[in-house]
Every structure is written in structure tokens, then in C-alpha cells.
Write a structure and sequence with these properties.
114 residues, alpha+beta, 3-stranded antiparallel sheet, two-stranded antiparallel sheet, 5 strands
Length: 114
């Protein structure tokens, strides 16, 4: 399966370690991405990193598989560090790829295509 995301409009926020708030283009409702079931997220910096990944993926034009996206992201992090998703990476921590994939899975405005 291939997937794509609707664009995130405005700013995303990380109010606490286990949640990300965001709004979707064309909708005025602010949604919350609940990450409380992801037990391996132990720092706010990991949640901030996931938030930056979601924002980066929202701007991608080409649909891709989740596996391909996770592999590419892992390679970029290994090569360029945490700065591959945001220029100022001082407040970011690296979560495992499983937590990033789980957060994408919990993103309710995700649209799947075949």
C-alpha cells in the first residue's frame, strides 16, 4: 500500500511528552495525536522529533510505502543526524523507528491509496 498525508496547516505543538496537537488544511478543528501507548517515548525531545517528521512528511509530494519512508528516514538520520528534519535540532532526541511508525499509524488524517 502507498500512503500520503493531507497538509498540516499552521503550527504543530507538543504540549506534553505524550501528545502532539495539529490542524489540518481546510479544517478549523485542532486535533490531538495521542502517543501515550508508546511506552518507549521517555523524553519530550522524542515527541518533538516525531512532530517534525510528521510536518516534513506532510510536505512530501510523492506517495510512498511506510517501510520505504522509515528506511529513508533512518538513513538520513544516520548520515545527517537529527538536523535532517529541522535545522535547529538542539531540543530533539532520536526515538526508535518503531515509535515514529506507530505515531504515523495513529495519525487520523492519514489517507491510504493502493
Amino acid at each position: 500500500k502507498q500512503w500520503y498525508q493531507r497538509r498540516v496547516r499552521g503550527k504543530t505543538k507538543v504540549p506534553e511528552k505524550n501528545s502532539i496537537t495539529y490542524s489540518v488544511k481546510g479544517e478549523e478543528i485542532i486535533s490531538t495525536l495521542d502517543l501515550s501507548a508508546l511506552e518507549q517515548i521517555v523524553e519530550m525531545g522524542q515527541t518533538r522529533f516525531i512532530c517534525e517528521v510528521l510536518s516534513k512528511l506532510a510536505n512530501e509530494k510523492q506517495p510512498s510505502t511506510l517501510l520505504a519512508i522509515m528506511r529513508q528516514l533512518s538513513l538520513e538520520i544516520d548520515k545527517h543526524g537529527l538536523g535532517c528534519v529541522k535545522d535547529n535540532s538542539n531540543w530533539l532526541s532520536r526515538p526508535r523507528v518503531f515509535e515514529i511508525a506507530s505515531a504515523i499509524n495513529r495519525y487520523r488524517h492519514l489517507s491510504l491509496i493502493q
